[in-house]
Amino acid sequence: MSRDLTQGSLTRNLFYMAFPTMGGFALQALYDIVDMFWIGQVSAKAIAGVAVFSSVFWLIEVLNEIIGVSSVSLISQNYGAKNYERTNRIVEQTLVFKAFVALIASGLLIVFLPPLMRFFSKDQEVVNYGLQYGYWRSFFMPIFFMTYSTYTAMRQTGESRLPTIIMGTSAILNVFLDPIFIFDDVPFLGISGFGMGVAGAAVATVLCTVVAFVWGFLVLLKGIGPVKISIKGLFKLDREIDVKLITIGLPSGFEMLLRSASNAVLVKILGFYGANTLAAAGVVSRLVGLSFIPLMGFSMGASAIVGQNLGANKVERAEKTVWLAAVYGSLFVLGFIVLANISPKTIIGLFLHESEAITEGIAAVRIGSWSMLFASFAISMMSAFFGSGNTLPAMFASVVGRWFAQLPYLVLVALVLKLPSNYIWYSFIIAEIAELLYAYFVFSKGKWKQYRVS
After folding, report:
1. Model-level pTM greater than 0.70?
2. 87: Cα within 13 Å, side-chain hemisphere
3. 334 in any annotated domain
4. What's the rounded Cα separation, in Å, for the pair 449 and 355?
5. Is 5 part of any domain?
6. pLDDT computed for residue 30 by the predictor
7. CB-CB neighbours of 244 under 10 Å
């Protein structure tokens, strides 16, 4: 059921949108966590290979971000203005553009993946594991891109529960398929598997994503309230909408590119410290990603509310929503910080078994977890920019946080002073503080309140 977010209690609307989204992302995170758990049973170098591929993949993911962010503001504002016919056209165009862009990106990534993997790691075993995993994920990139858009279409029209159910079902399916595809003999179950190794984890994820896409696509064809796409509409180009889908999200896409590029530099620097440090970073990035779940839930929920209320010219409701998201997000994150500092060894030990890798992981999760507190406020500020369609501030915030704060610190610590790897993890705190300061400065000026894209 779609929901009008321009009416009623802000807190109730925010939790209505955020909690199902959190649940969906929590279950979705099982993809990464389960992958890491089972891949960790192969070796630390296998985890390192997947971590290196992930840094490469996120450089391409920027293409998905450009159209996706554009669609958030376009769908929510048109829905808030009750222009349902146009909302349907935007959803259709989003799916078509995602498929086209992903097809090109997939081909490029498959061609350039081997040299990119070798650039980030000189360990041939790490490179081989990354290629085994990466080829499968790259080939099916169009399915991944379009699946994200089915979720976006539902959320921005106020339907937050169904995407959660779809994401949860595919994630749970992945839990069972992963070991079956990875191992010859499935641990704990005593049955025969396909023995595909690291590639098996990618195949399981692909199959589960296909299930999610087909389900979400059929739902949109059937219709959710006034929102209903058609097969015929998928073959019609709308130049005016297409231009907006490309241009509105460009700043956000560039921001993600800069963020991903900074992460690639980080991975390159970590590579100097060896495979164990890379493996620890791969695991910790997934664990820290769990703390982003409530933040993304509140942020995506707030973005939909901001977009609908700006479309209805209810600016005060939009601003109050952002502050509520910031407060609630920070309270949730505090729980993750406490857990990360009380029992990091137990958590890291689930994925890594080599003592050096475990030691690296403990330091990373303890130090890096504190960056989430500052990120909770910065991400909430971003919801105002994404909901309004004024995405330039998000790009500049990333530039300030990653390129003017984090990377100079990393170069100093790792390349100039050559300090131990522990000092690298403090760079995440420095980056989030810088990003928050810039985001608050722009948010407080209030230009986003007058911005419209519909």
Report:
1. no
2. 30
3. yes
4. 52
5. no
6. 66
7. 20
From the list 243, 302, 376, 322, the residue with the least C-alpha distance to 76 is 302
Q: What pLDDT does residue 24 have?
A: 67
Instruction: Map tokens 């920027």 to a residue.
Output: 62
What band does 12 get if pLDDT is binned at 50, 70 and 90? confident
Range of 86's domain?
10-450
What's the whole-number average pLDDT of the chain? 85
**Would 367 be classed as within a structural domain?**
yes
Indicate the Cα dihedral angle 189, 192, 197, 202, nearest 10°: -70
Identify the bridge partners of residue 227 per DSSP, sorted by sequence position: 224
3-state secondary structure 76-118: HHHHHCCCHHHHHHHHHHHHHHHHHHHHHHHHHHHHHHHHHHH
Give tens-digit pLDDT for 195-217.
Answer: 999 999 999 989 999 999 999 99
Q: Rounded CA gap, 163 and 421, in Å? A: 39
Distance CA 235, CA 237 (A): 7
Whether residue 340 contacts residue 369, with contact meaning beta carbons closer than 8 Å, is answered with: yes
AA identity, residue 285: S
DSSP string, 136-195: HHHHTHHHHHHHHHHHHHHHHTT--HHHHHHHHHHHHHHHHHHHHHH-SEETTTTEE---
Look at residues 81, 74, 451 and name the one whose alpha carbon lies nearest to residue 242. Answer: 74
Place of tokens 């949730």: 332
CA distance 86 to 255: 28
Q: pLDDT value at position 213?
A: 96
Whether 298 and 328 have beta carbons less than 8 Å apart is answered as: yes
How many independent structural domains does the chain possess?
Answer: 1
134 and 57 Cβ atoms separated by less than 8 Å: yes
Rounded Cα distance, 168 and 377, in Å: 27
Cα–Cα distance measured from residue 130 to residue 325, given in angstroms and rounded to the nearest whole number: 37
> Is 3 among the domain residues?
no
Contact 3, 307 (CB under 8 A): no
**Which residues fall within 8 angstroms of residue 451, CB to CB, at 6 or more apart?**
310, 388, 389, 390
Give the integer Cα–Cα distance in Å for 319 and 385: 11
DSSP string, 342-381: HSHHHHHTTT--SHHHHHHHHHHHHHHTTHHHHHHHHHHH
Span 275-334, pLDDT tens digits:
777 777 777 777 777 777 888 888 888 888 888 888 888 888 888 888 999 889 888 888
